[in-house]
Specification:
With 127 residues, the protein is an alpha+beta fold. Helices cover 34% and strands 26% of the residues. The protein is built from 4 helices and 5 strands; from the N terminus they run E-E-E-H-H-H-E-E-H. It is globular, with a radius of gyration of 15 Å. The N and C termini lie far apart (31 Å).
Length: 127
């Protein structure tokens, strides 16, 4: 399959009360080792989130998501994780957690245009 690269992605979710296992999809992380690509995008719809749960601390969510940005971009202010190579950063960001921000299990696919694939998946799974 010339021109196609393997990619992995996970959906970022807000889980207001972990014990209830309810969530809202708010973002996407996608990476490709072959393409040396990692990207995160998220949308915090405050109105939707407030309807879902009144217990959410939006400032804390924003801060955590901002750290996802730093880690993906390799920004040193994101801490030692941001200095890892791309696959390790993706694995760290998508590790199983018991917090209010979690990710889905990783899924895979092939793409000839990784940026278009990211946009398509974000629109299908998040917005």
């Amino acid at each position: 399959m010339p021109g196609k690269v393997l990619y992995e992605y996970a959906v970022i979710r807000v889980v207001p009360r972990v014990e209830r296992e309810e969530f809202i999809n708010i973002g996407l992380i996608l990476f490709s080792r072959e393409a040396k690509y990692i990207k995160v995008r998220y949308v915090l719809d405050e109105k939707k989130l407030s309807l879902f749960s009144s217990e959410l601390e939006l400032d804390s969510l924003r801060e955590t998501l901002h750290s996802f940005d730093k880690i993906c971009s390799g920004d040193k202010s994101g801490g030692p994780i941001a200095e890892l190579d791309i696959p390790e950063r993706f694995r760290w960001l998508t590790a199983i957690r018991s917090t209010s921000i979690q990710t889905s299990r990783s899924q895979t696919g092939f793409s000839t245009d990784i940026e278009k694939t990211f946009d398509r998946l974000f629109n299908e799974l998040v917005v």
